[in-house]
Amino acid sequence: MKKYAIIVAGGSGSRMRSNLPKQFIEIGRLPVLMHTLIRFKEAFADIDLILVLPESQFDFWKELCQKHHFTVAHQLVKGGNSRFQSGKNGLAVIETDGIVAVHDGVRPFVSKDIIRESFEVAQAKGTAVVSVASKDSVRVNGQAIDRQTVRLIQTPQTFQVSIIKKAFETEELSTFTDDASVVEFADFDINLIEGSYENIKITTPEDLEWAEIILKRNA
Ligand SMILES: Nc1ccn([C@@H]2O[C@H](COP(=O)(O)OP(=O)(O)OP(=O)(O)O)[C@@H](O)[C@H]2O)c(=O)n1
Ligand SMILES: C[C@](O)(CO)[C@H](O)COP(=O)(O)O
């Protein structure tokens, strides 16, 4: 089975309010994005890594790779104006069938076990989307609902290549917040698998403090 991971890091990171794009901020002396790429390479030595970045950041990224002697092989692909477009650009360079995980570049703490399980489930069932239970009570439009029915969606979101490619033939809709919503819109079933509360998405400044704590816990 040919394995791919599209690491999307083409966003603007506006909620981080940092001059340095959040994927390049160092945690434990290594840029966030390098931690993420290393996790996937550790899960599968033979995986093809596709890194989606704004084209304007290519040179800076290459400088960072030299500075940190970062040798994990990956293909650089230019980002789009939305996460959907960035994912689509990543998919466009995949030419064989197989299994592909799409993962936020800013989720550096995904475990090898979760990555591997997502590939196994996607191979068997076509799709595998990582999720966790809500630890808080939940209300929708002010109305309390049974939180047992709620799942918080993370990445990786892993698919048979033929399925996700077919799904991305659609026009982009504003309801597409992740790849699972695109694939579901194309009428494929979404299989949820168990994620981890450590698999945070670095979004706002305090997430960087959590990130340092998680990194120390894992050391
Ligand atoms: N045009 C875009 C927008 C988002 N992403 C990626 O999708 C992931 C999840 O998005 P988020 O964390 O929300 O990043 P941003 O969109 O960059 O952040 P913000 O909404 O705060 O601007 C990130 O790795 C981000 O780089 C992308 O590849 N291309
Ligand atoms: C894909 C995702 O990380 C799943 O939780 C999330 O939907 C990304 O959303 P954002 O608006 O780009 O933060």
TrEMBL record:
<dbReference type="InterPro" id="IPR001228">
    <property type="entry name" value="IspD"/>
</dbReference>
<protein>
    <recommendedName>
        <fullName>2-C-methyl-D-erythritol 4-phosphate cytidylyltransferase</fullName>
        <ecNumber>2.7.7.60</ecNumber>
    </recommendedName>
</protein>
<dbReference type="Pfam" id="PF01128">
    <property type="entry name" value="IspD"/>
</dbReference>
<feature type="site" description="Transition state stabilizer">
    <location>
        <position position="15"/>
    </location>
</feature>
<dbReference type="InterPro" id="IPR034683">
    <property type="entry name" value="IspD/TarI"/>
</dbReference>
<comment type="similarity">
    <text>Belongs to the IspD/TarI cytidylyltransferase family. IspD subfamily.</text>
</comment>
<feature type="site" description="Transition state stabilizer">
    <location>
        <position position="22"/>
    </location>
</feature>
<comment type="pathway">
    <text>Isoprenoid biosynthesis; isopentenyl diphosphate biosynthesis via DXP pathway; isopentenyl diphosphate from 1-deoxy-D-xylulose 5-phosphate: step 2/6.</text>
</comment>
<feature type="site" description="Positions MEP for the nucleophilic attack">
    <location>
        <position position="201"/>
    </location>
</feature>
<keyword id="KW-0808">Transferase</keyword>
<comment type="function">
    <text>Catalyzes the formation of 4-diphosphocytidyl-2-C-methyl-D-erythritol from CTP and 2-C-methyl-D-erythritol 4-phosphate (MEP).</text>
</comment>
<dbReference type="InterPro" id="IPR050088">
    <property type="entry name" value="IspD/TarI_cytidylyltransf_bact"/>
</dbReference>
<keyword id="KW-0548">Nucleotidyltransferase</keyword>
<feature type="site" description="Positions MEP for the nucleophilic attack">
    <location>
        <position position="147"/>
    </location>
</feature>
<keyword id="KW-0414">Isoprene biosynthesis</keyword>
<dbReference type="GO" id="GO:0050518">
    <property type="term" value="F:2-C-methyl-D-erythritol 4-phosphate cytidylyltransferase activity"/>
</dbReference>
<dbReference type="InterPro" id="IPR029044">
    <property type="entry name" value="Nucleotide-diphossugar_trans"/>
</dbReference>
